[in-house]
């Protein structure tokens, strides 16, 4: 009986605890999760401040456009921006950090302007990168290739990897404070987006905009696939260089020019040509010379003989030949070189693909064999150094080859013209405008876009190879597109007027270029082609913000496909930020070992930790040692903990339009000190305001009060103007100057004696009360000014301040209205001029104190012979200049850190 009673009591206690926990969970959505009741810690700690706010913001729904919406039509308008979807294989680097610092700052600003705001997240399936990662994983762990598994099983392995690892970058974005609506997160292989991709292909194919053709493509031999231009790195060589190539044990020689001779048919004469890719001579079909070259006029109508087969090749005359280079005679390989292909088209030359020759060798083994065979036939001439650019696949690090392959293409001429016209007519704005030249050059000279990839991971092309039995009006095969095989069969049957049972079909094995699905991202995320509510509300978007390096590869394609498929521009403005470089101006690259993970800047990392990251990379051992020395020189003590807010502020401060960013990570530490300054200012204010303080709307201010309010009003106006023009350095400068040089270094120091006097003498409480109201206004408005850039520390400090209207004010600073320049009319030129005079006097006195070595501990006038008349004369002279308007120096100036405590506390006697 006792055990039963105890059990009942335990159950009752458990039920009560469960109910209490449920109740606390329910009310917690209304309460900040950080401890904002206890006093502020003595010093600022990023780890302390940034630990808990993000989950609370998410739980409250602040990042959703539905939060605080005013009916169906928000009179403030709508701001919508989609994220440049990062690769599912990716991890953050400082380039990502810059992109997200800018985008989140803009998003938070628009949200605080009470607009219906949506920043839509998403992730790209990254066809090549993901397939390479999973293939390497399978080979490393199981010793199997994708071909061993087969297509279906391999795709299952990729999805398994994606589900385990694919959301890593989302966690990193949250660490950066990115205020994305995660409930709307999209993956480009989601059913909704896959359906949109299929629909886009079918519509464009049916219209004839997408077609199939055999042309030269960038071919990665190790991937066995065509790749896009953006996936080709240009490796510049100054001369002979040995490079590692996947699939070869020994390094391969590049940066040399090999000369050899072709025999002229029917004579003892020979024509000497030179090439950097001697193995391609197996596919030569002509020798070209310039029409004006007198050395070869006698060879018109002649042919040369290929040394390894009975092929006779014509000598053609073409203007593209440079007579001053080499011998002025050029070998022509139409199937393996873009320029040669154009020559081949002009002269009707045949195309011979060397990969189909029965030599049974890999290309660089064939290079050695061809060279030796030419030497054996006495047709080899010489090898010499030759500066050249080697195309390297950014994914596989293989040497890219131009190769003739049948592929799917998008006809871009009409779409390119529409995209160019949209900018010319002002319907689409590109910022900064120095990118316009690049835009028009691309759009006005656009080439058709190869969209097929020989991969398994990606959107399989919804096109079917059709064979029609008993067809009288075709050559036996045809391509049709369809949402299902049945639809494709019906299309083909209708096209050839036969019954469906006469149609045999096979779906194309290839998948679509990742940029195809990215090109429709701004509207596929909202359910296009279906007429969804989100599509009607949020498309077209407001802004596209990204790096200038993908202006063509992504931005242009979104504009073209948006106009083509929806009849609307996907956004109204494009803001392009610069590329992040290291402190020495070098592009951040894994191959240089100078890439910095922003999380290492946020949390800090020891030098040994940076070295360990190099050891886990794919760098050559010699390059690892070089990179280690670079890290040791740049970060001898590692990277200190700076925090997210300091990193974001630094990146925005660096973002000047029109130039790349040389980011010295050590300088970010200065903005952590700035956060500490904010912390101390609010800590001082909380002590000064007291527990009984109630903010008032208006008070009678002193000169210093009116001055700081005037400076605050100026900062508000500067930030408002700078946000509208994407001038981020102007925003950070205005906020930094106000907080550090005006509020902390001048106003706080000038009012400390007022508070001290009020504490000593109750009759002096009235001016102290006025100062408290002014101080509160500066802190409250100043934190709101800063919130889009430094969301964590401003939230922490804002939650400590009392509210003007506790019952109706928003629960978080991130949904509190941003200060509006029209609402702040505190600018006063007279007050600014008076304060200029006061500060000039203070600076003069402090300068003289320094010159005469006067200190608080010394008996000033007794120990130093000071000519007081000199001090008076200088002050009078300065006063006269100001009264005449001759004094132009901007005030206040930066106060040295060690002297800040002296201002206004009797230190300047």
UniProtKB/TrEMBL annotation:
Domain Methionyl/Valyl/Leucyl/Isoleucyl-tRNA synthetase anticodon-binding positions: 705-858
Reaction catalysed by this enzyme: tRNA(Val) + L-valine + ATP = L-valyl-tRNA(Val) + AMP + diphosphate
Any single Pfam family the record assigns to this protein: tRNA-synt_1
Aminoacyl-tRNA synthetase class Ia domain ranges (all copies): 53-664
SUPFAM superfamilies in the record: Anticodon-binding domain of a subclass of class I aminoacyl-tRNA synthetases (SSF47323), Nucleotidylyl transferase (SSF52374), ValRS/IleRS/LeuRS editing domain (SSF50677)
Gene Ontology terms: cellular component: cytosol
Keyword Iron in annotation: no
Spans annotated as Disordered: 889-909
Source species, domain of life: Eukaryota
EC number: 6.1.1.9
GO BP term, example: valyl-tRNA aminoacylation
Alphabetized UniProt keyword annotations: Aminoacyl-tRNA synthetase, ATP-binding, Ligase, Nucleotide-binding, Protein biosynthesis
One term of GO molecular function: valine-tRNA ligase activity
Family to which the UniProt record says this protein belongs: Belongs to the class-I aminoacyl-tRNA synthetase family.
Protein name stated in the entry: valine--tRNA ligase
Organism: Takifugu rubripes (Japanese pufferfish)
Lineage, opening ranks: Eukaryota, Metazoa, Chordata, Craniata, Vertebrata
């Amino acid at each position: 009986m006792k055990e039963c009673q105890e059990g009942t009591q335990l159950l009752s206690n458990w039920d009560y605890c469960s109910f209490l926990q449920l109740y606390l969970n329910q009310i917690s959505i209304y309460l900040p999760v950080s401890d904002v009741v206890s006093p502020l810690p003595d010093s600022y700690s990023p780890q302390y401040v940034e630990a808990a706010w993000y989950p609370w913001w998410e739980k409250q729904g602040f990042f959703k456009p539905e939060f605080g919406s005013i009916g169906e039509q928000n009179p403030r308008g709508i701001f919508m921006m989609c994220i440049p979807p990062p690769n599912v294989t990716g991890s953050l680097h400082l380039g990502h950090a810059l992109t997200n610092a800018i985008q989140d700052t803009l998003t938070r600003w628009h949200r605080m302007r009470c607009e219906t705001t949506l920043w839509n997240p998403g992730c790209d399936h990254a066809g090549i990168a993901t397939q390479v990662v999973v293939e390497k994983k399978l080979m490393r762990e199981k010793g199997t290739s994708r071909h061993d598994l087969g297509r279906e099983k391999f795709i299952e392995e990729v999805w398994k990897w994606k589900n385990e690892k694919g959301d890593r970058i989302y966690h990193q974005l949250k660490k950066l404070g990115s205020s994305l609506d995660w409930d709307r997160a999209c993956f480009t292989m989601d059913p909704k987006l896959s359906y949109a991709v299929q629909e886009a292909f079918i519509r464009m194919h049916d219209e004839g905009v997408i077609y199939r053709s055999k042309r030269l493509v960038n071919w990665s031999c190790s991937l066995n696939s065509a790749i896009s231009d953006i996936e080709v790195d240009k490796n510049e060589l100054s001369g002979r260089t040995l490079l590692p190539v996947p699939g070869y044990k020994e390094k391969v020689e590049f940066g040399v020019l090999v000369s050899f001779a072709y025999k002229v048919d029917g004579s003892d004469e020979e024509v000497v040509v030179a090439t950097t890719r001697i193995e391609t001579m197996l596919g030569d079909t002509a020798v070209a010379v310039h029409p004006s070259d007198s050395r070869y006029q006698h060879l018109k109508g002649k042919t040369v003989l290929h040394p390894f087969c009975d092929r006779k090749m014509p000598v053609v005359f073409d203007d593209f030949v440079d007579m001053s280079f080499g011998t002025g005679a050029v070998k022509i390989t139409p199937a393996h070189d873009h320029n040669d292909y154009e020559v081949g088209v002009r002269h009707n030359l045949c195309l011979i693909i060397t990969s189909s020759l029965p030599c049974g060798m890999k290309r660089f083994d064939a290079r050695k064999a061809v060279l030796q065979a030419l030497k054996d036939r006495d047709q080899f001439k010489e090898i010499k150094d030759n500066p050249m650019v080697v195309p390297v696949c950014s994914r596989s690090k293989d040497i890219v080859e131009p190769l003739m392959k049948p592929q799917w293409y998008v006809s871009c001429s009409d779409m390119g013209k529409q995209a160019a016209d949209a900018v010319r007519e002002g319907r689409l704005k590109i910022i900064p405008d120095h990118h316009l030249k690049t835009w028009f050059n691309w759009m006005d000279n656009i080439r058709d876009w190869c969209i097929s990839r020989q991969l398994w991971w990606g959107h399989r092309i919804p096109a079917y190879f059709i064979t029609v039995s008993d067809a009288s009006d075709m050559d036996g095969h045809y391509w049709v597109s369809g949402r299902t095989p049945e639809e494709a069969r019906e299309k083909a049957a209708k096209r050839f007027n036969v019954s469906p049972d006469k149609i045999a079909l096979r779906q194309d094995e290839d998948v679509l270029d990742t940029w195809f699905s990215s090109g429709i991202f701004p509207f596929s995320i909202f359910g296009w082609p279906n007429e969804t509510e989100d599509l009607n509300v949020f498309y077209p978007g407001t802004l596209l913000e990204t790096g200038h390096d993908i202006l063509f590869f992504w931005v242009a394609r979104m504009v073209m496909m948006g106009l083509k498929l929806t009849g609307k521009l996907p956004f109204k403005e494009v803001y392009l930020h610069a590329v992040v470089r290291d402190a020495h101006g070098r592009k951040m690259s894994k191959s240089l070992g100078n890439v910095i993970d922003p999380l290492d800047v946020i949390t800090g990392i020891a030098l040994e930790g940076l070295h360990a990251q190099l050891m886990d990379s794919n760098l050559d051992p010699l390059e690892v040692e070089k990179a280690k020395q670079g890290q040791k020189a740049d970060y001898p003590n590692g990277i200190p903990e700076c925090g997210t807010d300091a990193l974001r502020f630094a990146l925005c401060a660096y973002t000047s339009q029109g130039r790349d960013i040389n980011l010295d990570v050590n300088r970010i530490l200065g903005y952590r000190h700035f956060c500490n300054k904010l912390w101390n200012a609010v800590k001082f204010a909380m002590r000064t305001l007291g527990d009984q303080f109630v903010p008032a709307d208006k008070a009678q201010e002193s000169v210093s009060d009116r001055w700081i309010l005037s400076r605050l009003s100026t900062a508000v106006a500067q930030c408002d103007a700078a946000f509208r023009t994407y001038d981020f350095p102007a925003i950070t400068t205005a906020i930094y100057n106000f907080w550090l040089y005006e509020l902390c270094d001048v106003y706080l120091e000038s009012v400390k004696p007022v508070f001290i006097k009020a504490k000593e003498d109750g009759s002096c409480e009235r001016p102290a009360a006025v100062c408290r109201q002014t101080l509160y206004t500066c802190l409250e408005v100043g934190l709101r000014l800063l919130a889009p850039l430094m969301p964590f520390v401003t939230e922490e400090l804002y939650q400590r301040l009392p509210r003007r209207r506790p019952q109706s004010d928003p629960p978080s600073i991130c949904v509190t209205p941003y200060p509006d320049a029209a609402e702040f009319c505190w600018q006063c030129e007279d007050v600014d001029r008076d304060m200029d005079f006061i500060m000039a006097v203070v600076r003069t006195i402090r300068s003289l104190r320094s010159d005469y070595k006067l200190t608080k501990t010394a008996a000033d006038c007794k120990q130093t012979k000071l000519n007081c008349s000199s001090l008076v004369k200088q002050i009078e002279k300065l006063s006269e200049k100001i009264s005449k308007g001759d004094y132009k120096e901007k005030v206040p100036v930066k106060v040295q850190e060690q002297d800040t405590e002296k201002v206004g506390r009797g230190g300047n006697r």
